[in-house]
Amino acid sequence: MSKKVLIDLNPVIQHPGTKLTFPFECEIETDDKSGFAIKEIAAGEIHAQSLNNALLISGRAQAICILDCARCAKELEMNVLIEIDEEFGVEGVPASYGTGQHAYVIDEQPYPLFKENSLSIADLLYQEFVVQMPAKPLCDEACEPSEVNIEAYNN
Ligand SMILES: [Zn+2]
């Protein structure tokens, strides 16, 4: 089974006022530029609610992340918890109003998170983990910078 999760939010978007919870398990792809890697999968849940012209996405996720120690550059594993709190615009007329029309999400981000009204959990989580990752993780509070890294550490 693919762990690349797309969540169809039409049950919320076409029914303003409805609030639904979607648990997920999801793989997140990272690369050298990400500054971290995710060991195995991220798990959590999102709550989605439509307020007619806005879609509210909240929730939380956690993943075992592989980071480089800010002092000695040794790899370390850290359980990182993130909070999700996003709002997207919605246009159109919800299907539940019976006009034969549909409401749809407006996703104007540089890296869209939606495919039609389905939210890509992997893309949302990647964005949230990048922003919320600890800035200076340490392998140990007592970690001393190694000779090689002293210059980088002092800058
Ligand atoms: Zn260290």
In words, what does this structure look like?
The termini are far apart. The strands form 2 sheets. A 5-stranded antiparallel beta sheet has the order 2-3-4-5-6. The model has no long low-confidence stretch (mean pLDDT 91). It contains 3 helices and 8 strands; from the N terminus they run E-H-E-E-E-E-E-E-E-H-H. With 155 residues, the protein is mainly beta. It has one domain. Residues 69, 71-72, 74, 138-139, 143 line the site of zinc ion.
Summarize the helices and strands and which ones pair or pack.
Layout: E1 6-8, H1 10-13, E2 19-26, E3 37-50, E4 54-68, E5 75-92, E6 103-106, E7 114-115, E8 118-120, H2 121-132, H3 150-154
Task: Supply database-style keywords.
three-stranded antiparallel β-sheet; 155 residues; 43% strand; mainly beta; five-stranded antiparallel β-sheet; binds zinc ion
